[in-house]
Specification:
heterodimer; A: mainly alpha; 2 helices; B: mainly alpha; three-stranded antiparallel sheet; 3 strands; globular
């Protein structure tokens, strides 16, 4: 029972942790960085160049 | 057609909803492209409306030094946060329900042929691909200016070849003079994988996919979990025979290779030995009573506790 509780706590801890990481990334301007790369056709990334 | 198939169709359609590409001859460039989709796709696919999380992660790692020099501490937290959030809730479920490349593999595997299994040891390869091609090489191997490369996209990714490389070569004839040995090698990887998909269930997911490898790390700790009711299990092996990933469910309910397609729960197990729960507080699958009578025709009673 205690093991199950710990497992559940771990799940919630990870859930909250990654929400914080996501928010931190948004605040650091990473959304725009992802967008800039995603709207550019990267030929070398596809092995064409 | 079952619910999962409809979800796969809907997800593939939504992720590739930019249908004007035959006229624009280029990729979608709207604001949605800043959103990382939870599955393997290619940002350079002409129809894609979201960003590939693996491509975005490699790009963040590859550009981390110039970003630091420029005073921007961008180390990929947005992408890691997105993937971790999905993984911590449902584990590897996106592979089964929303990944377009997984969907393609399942469709091709429907071609009638003898089916063969992948040795279990091969499933460790994807963790090497994740560590080396997605994390280490983009971070470590940099040019004079400190920029790295998207190693997985450039040298391996068959989804990129299929969804972006080939369509762009068709849409933009001027690119045809640029493809060389590297693209030919990637094309060979794609063709080999497509052929293997006929005989092997989800070969890419099992052996290569670094996104699946990343999600699989969450299977044991995610809020959604599979449950094995051992009292009901007769170890008949039906779950294993029907599993697209070749998982022996009776050896562990949340193994790394389980993509939570729920096929074992819905169509394989007749004994109520498989269930799932969310956050261990909301059991959606009540444990059925243990079987008291077993006729011995459908399984091995000697394995049953």
């Amino acid at each position: 029972m205690e093991k199950e509780k710990n497992g559940c706590r771990k799940s919630y801890f990870l859930f909250v942790l990654f929400i914080f990481l996501l928010i931190a990334g948004v605040n650091l301007g990473e959304v725009d960085a992802v967008w800039e790369k995603a709207v550019t056709i990267c030929l070398s990334c596809m092995g064409i160049d | 057609m079952d619910v999962r198939r409809w979800v796969q169709i809907a997800a593939t359609t939504l992720m590739n909803a930019w249908l004007l590409f035959p006229y624009t001859k280029t990729i979608y460039q709207g604001k949605l492209k800043s959103v990382c989709v939870p599955a393997l796709t290619c940002s350079s696919c002409p129809a894609a409306v979201g960003a590939c999380p693996l491509g975005a992660l490699q790009t963040m790692f590859a550009n981390v030094r110039p970003a630091f020099r420029g005073g921007e501490f961008q180390i990929g937290l947005y992408v890691v946060g997105t993937l971790g959030l999905v993984g911590s809730v449902v584990g590897r479920m996106p592979c089964a329900w929303v990944c377009p490349f997984g969907f393609i593999q399942e469709l091709i595997n429907k071609i009638p042929s003898p089916k063969i299994d992948v040795p279990r040891a091969f499933s460790w390869v994807k963790y090497g691909v994740l560590a080396i091609f997605v994390v280490l090489l983009p971070l470590i191997v940099v040019d004079l200016f400190g920029y790295g490369e998207n190693w997985f996209c450039k040298y391996i990714c068959p989804a990129g070849t299929l969804e972006a490389g080939l369509p762009l070569l068709i849409l933009q004839p001027q690119l045809r003079g640029l493809w060389g040995p590297l693209f030919m090698a990637k094309l060979a990887i794609l063709i080999l994988l497509l052929l293997s998909m006929i005989y092997v269930r989800r070969p890419f997911c099992r052996v290569i996919c670094p996104l699946g490898a990343l999600y699989s790390l969450f299977n044991r700790v995610s809020l959604f979990k599979m449950v094995h009711h051992q009292d009901n299990c007769v170890r008949c092996g039906e779950c294993y025979r029907n599993c697209p990933m070749g998982v022996r469910f009776y050896e562990g309910a949340n193994q790394n290779d389980c993509i939570r397609c729920l096929r074992c729960l819905r169509t394989s197990c007749k004994y109520g030995a498989i269930g799932y729960e969310v956050a261990e507080t909301f059991p959606f699958s009540k444990k059925p009573p243990a079987r008291e009578i077993f006729d011995g025709k459908e399984g091995n009673t000697s394995c049953r506790k």
